Predict the structure.
Amino acid sequence: MLLPFEQISPHEKELREYFARFDVPAGTAPLGQPFCIMLFTNRSGSSLVSEHMRSTPQFTGFGEPLNYRWVIDCCEREGLTSFADYLRFETDRLYRRKPGALQGMKASFGQAMMLMRSGAIPGFFDDVRWVVIQRDDLLSQAVSFAIADQTRQWHSFDNAAPVEPVYDYEDIRRRLQGFAHSYMAINTFCASFDIHPYRIIYDEFARDPQAGTRNLAAYLGVGEVTIDADRLQMERQRNRFSALFRRQFISDYQSRMRSTGAAGGEGRRG
């Protein structure tokens, strides 16, 4: 039975079908400079961290360049015919944008495994600095995901039409279970490849983003960083629905667990 991170992700499946040459050939010239890969899950706070990194002159990238639609659109536009060509084009593009800046990207555990399986690590990315971002409160993360999915308000600056979200116990429970599995997969991925990542707890980062940015920069080998506040748009997206849905879920969950326990106990006595 395959572990979750070992399974072929939808991104890898689509790209293997698209490229005649997907695996990075032996002898490919490596990037030859440090590169940061931030392992993340939906609503983990990775966008806030990435925006702060990009607001400095010392860092660039930190988007999601491994999403298959982005890759295929770029290749169609630029006439690229292999995955290795795409990786070279994308990193060259980032370098031209900020010469000398340390580059980074966000990746799911499935996309990170795609880089391993294709030989892009270590064939192309020969000096990866790994970062994992997570939230202490998985339930708040699940609630945030459920609300954003209904309202289409993925960022604080989005201008989606106002929608009042509706509480759905099963939907939140499903997302909570998904995050639990994703974090387990990330940790197992890191253990299996002997990766010891720098870990960011979103809740701590959000309380003092400037300190969080400086600490991450220091881990990545960059001493002094200057944050351009004019380039920052994102704010935390907590609202009355977040707290309300979280309290309601806890109440409903505990009530259901008590009911299950009582039913099981009666069955044993019978």
Summary: The beta strands are 35-39, 59-63, 102-107, 128-134, 198-201. The chain is about 55% helix and 10% strand.
